Amino acid sequence: MEGVLLDPRREGGRTDLLLLDAAAMEGREEALFDRWFAEMGVQCKATQTRRGWTSWYKYYEDIDEEKILRALLGYGAHVSEDARTGKAPRPVFQIDDGWQTAVGDWLSIREDRFPRGLAPLSEEARQAGMESGLWLAPFAARFDSRIAREHPDWLVRDRKGRPIPAGSNWGGFYGLDPEHPGVRDYLKTVFRTVIDDWGFSFVKLDFLYAACMTGAHGFSRGELMGRAMDFLRETVGDGKILGCGVPLASAFGVVDYCRIGCDVSLDWDGSPAWRLLFRERPSTKQAIENTRGRRFLDRRAFLNDPDVWIGRTAKDVKLTRAQKELLRSENLKYGSLVFCSDDWDELPEEWRTLE
Predict the structure, then answer these.
(1) Which residues, 6 or more positions from 75, have their beta carbon under 8 angstroms from its beta carbon?
(2) Contact 111, 62 (CB under 8 A)
(3) 253: left (phi over 0), alpha (psi -120 to 50) or beta
């Protein structure tokens, strides 16, 4: 309850807070989950199972226009006529991390990599019959980003007023305070640009937990995360949201799709050092267990994103054929947003489908 403020003396201040609301239920597993979500008033927003491509596990941050267009040429040529005409769900074509000059500076595109900007790529994806998607981390700002330098008052801070590091990615990053009016105005401009000007209708919003590093403004961390998610939903409007790096309950009934586990890795379970030092780490083995264990969230809280399956054979991929087959089959069995990340001609021929 850290951060919660009950202040009956202040106009509009809270006077009480519900700490626990419990219920005991009996029955079969599926029926109980149906009942629980109904009791909670949670309704799944999206209904259509989707397939698609994302740049991350093929290129990571090393993306440019040439690589994106090569992938689009392969996948765009195999979109069904039903998907092109809207009779079937359109596959998602999503550009991941690496397009921006710095995490946090979302209005600054890397011109050396994307000389035409992103709008032409979004349009070309739509022309190919795919839904154009873009990755952002709206509540994250790299230590050396322009946003962090120019707006230090926007950063989430501890009780002593020091900015709180939210993670070590990209050399380290801070969280942006989702309650700060400047942050909200900035993100409204960002999403208006991404959706209206650049033409993306699908956004993958990552590292969302950065919004709730500590309780503040009279709210607990959980309350801040819930308020931040409601703000994103309102700001994105009718655009599709894939939530990622978010405490799952905060995303129930708010996002269209949600990652329900860790990142897959290009090997089975990481190195012994990784397993020893990192509680949360990329792991194909752990991702499959997450996919199975959280299958009940699918179509109740949101549509599950189990992360990608890997098909290519390359030096950097240490997965065996059997491990690749297991990853792909479990994703298709339990996931409703199923991505791959390889170029089309790298996939085993029998796996080349967007249906």
Answers:
(1) 53, 91, 93, 128, 130, 344, 354
(2) no
(3) left
Q: What pLDDT shows up at residue 47?
A: 87
CA separation for the pair 241, 228 (Å, rounded)? 14
Q: How much is the pLDDT for 279?
A: 74
Beta-ladder partners of 174: 141, 165
pTM: predicted TM-score of the whole model, two decimal places: 0.96
> For residue 145, what are its two tokens?
């980003």
Other C-beta atoms lying within 10 Å of the C-beta of residue 313: 13
Burial class (CB in 10 A: 0-12, 13-18, 19+), 162: exposed
When the candidates are 3.40.630.40, 2.30.40.10, 3.30.70.141, 3.20.20.70, the CATH number that belongs to 41-351 is 3.20.20.70
Radius of gyration of the chain (CA): 21
- Roughly what angle, to the nearest 10 degrees, separates helices 321-334 and 284-293? 20
Instruction: Report pLDDT digits (tens) over 88-147.
Output: 999 999 999 999 999 999 999 999 999 999 999 999 999 999 999 999 999 999 999 999
Question: If we measure between CA atoms, which residue out of 108, 100, 54, 32 comes closest to residue 257?
Answer: 54
Domain locations in the chain? 41-351
Terminal Cα distance for the chain, rounded: 46
